[in-house]
Design brief:
single chain, mainly alpha, 60% helix, 2 domains
Length: 216
């Protein structure tokens, strides 16, 4: 008859290998590692749990580099040029932030600054720090803390919400003003696509395993 100590140890090992589906909260045994090219799905709701891709760390790094290249043009260059009553004005993201501050909308300006300017940049910096340390097998601290920070702030980036608001504004102003896209709009769209692709390629389970191997 097994001792109580062995039974408790077996129960702890079994519970540590269980994880919940993000979609339906079904508990599943995740001890087996999913091979590259295969897809792990939830048996209840068919949610994709893991889809390992060869060289996913390198691809994720390149997506972030592309995002960084287009980040500053997206923030500084004019997003939209609009002409109304004979007056033409170019508006960039930083111009919109400055206008919010000058008109006294400090709460909206703060939310705008955090969600649209700071968090996308911080996400890319964290991913570059994590992926470079893992890819080059560099023993370092703060990998686990950096990835926890990334997961905590990733839902606060609102690039897609801003893009949607631009489309709504363009539709409402189309009858009263002449709108022309600026270079910043193309840079912003590229930044948005690279951010979406980076999120799609991110393999959380693989990164956690590599973080455990290379340091915390």
């Amino acid at each position: 008859m097994p001792s109580k100590l062995n039974t408790d140890k077996l129960r702890d090992i079994k519970s540590s290998s269980l994880s919940a589906c993000p979609e339906c909260d079904l508990l599943m045994d995740t001890r087996e590692q999913v091979k590259e090219g295969y897809v792990s799905e939830c048996p209840r709701c068919s949610y994709t749990l893991e889809h390992p891709v060869r060289l996913s760390i390198r691809h994720n790094f390149f997506c972030v580099i592309i995002g960084l290249i287009f980040y500053f043009p997206a923030m500084l260059l004019p997003i939209m040029n609009f002409t109304m009553i004979g007056t033409t004005r170019a508006m960039s993201i930083l111009d919109a932030l400055r206008t919010l501050v000058m008109t006294g909308n400090m709460g909206i300006a703060t939310l705008f600054l955090i969600t649209l300017v700071l968090i996308p940049l911080l996400k890319m910096i964290l991913i570059i720090f994590i992926t470079t340390r893992i890819y080059y097998h560099a023993q370092t601290h703060y990998l686990a803390a950096s990835f926890k920070w990334y997961n905590a702030i990733k839902s606060w980036g609102m690039l897609d919400i801003f893009m949607l608001s631009l489309l709504v504004a363009a539709i409402k102003l189309s009858d009263d003003a002449e709108l022309l896209p600026g270079l910043g709009l193309y840079a912003f769209v590229t930044l948005l696509l690279s951010s979406a692709l980076q999120t799609q390629l991110l393999n959380k389970k693989l990164l956690w395993r590599l973080i455990e191997r290379h340091g915390n």
